[in-house]
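Homework help board

Subject: predicted structure for assignment chain

Our instructor gave us this sequence and asked us to write out the predicted structure in token form, then describe one feature. I got the tokens but I'm not sure how to describe them. Can anyone check?
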Amino acid sequence: MSKLIIVGGGIGGLATALAVARQGHRVLVLERAPEFAEIGAGIQLAPNGLHALDRLGLGEAVRSTAVRMDALRFMDGVTGEHVVSMDLTERYRERFGNPYAVVHRAELHTTLLEACRAEDAVELRSAAAAVGYEQDANGATVLLEGGERITGDALIGADGIHSAIRAQLVGDGAPRNSGITVYRAVIPMEQVPAELRHLTSVTWWTGPGCHFVHYPIAGGKYLNLAASSDNKATEMLAGVPATQGDIRREFASLGEDAQRLLALGEGWKSWVLVDRDPVDTWTDGRVALLGDAAHPMLHYVAQGACQGLEDAVILGDLLDCSTGELPQRFEKFNADRRERTARIQLLARESIKLWHTSGSAAGDRNAALSALTPDQLHDYVAWMHGARTTGEPTGITGTTDRNGVQR
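My token output:
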């Protein structure tokens, strides 16, 4: 039985702990924070993310608090025009094998945490900040703040976009600043006018250099608000309070309905969005990266959590091996995952043009999107939403171009 050390107790780290423990390994999860907890609000889970949770035995638990979406609604935020909706009901669910759902980030994290606590082979330790690693032919050692060293048979860095393990393994410096600030708030659904609730859809309002998305979370008790502004932010802030005045100023170009919803937000906090360029290699002998430590992405295609969950299950499947084979299995994991995750990283960047276009370009975009049939919309996302954690992708019949459009 191998001992694996996982640095990072977020969604990806806990999911990986479950996946590898069920292959017979002992797992130690190290979390730098004083306790295992998750900040943030809503997460969108496409069918591929729910499939990974099914593989972990947690799909039903997550669905019990998730809200199933019936549509992704694309609105012109300036004119208020409904441009197009991607239907997510029976045809979509049958094709991709799962619904599209939204869930509170803390609820998903709690489900994973409780499953880890119930697993005898998983040990959880908080207030343990990693600063680097060492390794030899027989094992890997994580170095903690304060000088403590913990050795196992292998080390997995799931410590996010500011990963200390990545800093040593890849050495690519600070994350890339997108210059875009996202403002987030959560409001009780009872405060939202009935005609604006849209209880079964994710709704986007697009504008010049900005857009606003909202959807229900926590079983429909709350509305999650996230508004993005390409305000050329230079300082990479995280969790900084924002005022209603900030929101009015940044999103003044949006129309009446979007403004009514934004005005309801209280306790706004802001983050400057960051990501990294894709890299070919995120393994080093007995050390591997996973999730945002390996392939951090902007949230514009709503796949960050889904890709971390896919990573966890695929790596778990690969680690049905002896201690001596761990480096080779890590290399295979890297090879299996890098093309797919890099493609999503780059698509998330490219999609900014979709959300933030203005003038005649916005009109052209609206015309192109509104001309798409339901099947064409499903074809466009099939390579992401229909992919599985084992075997061939499902939901695709034929080949796709570089943007995922079926040909």
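Reply (TA_rk): Your tokens look well-formed. For the description, you could write something like this. Residues 113 and 215 are 25 Å apart (CA to CA). That's the kind of observation they're looking for.
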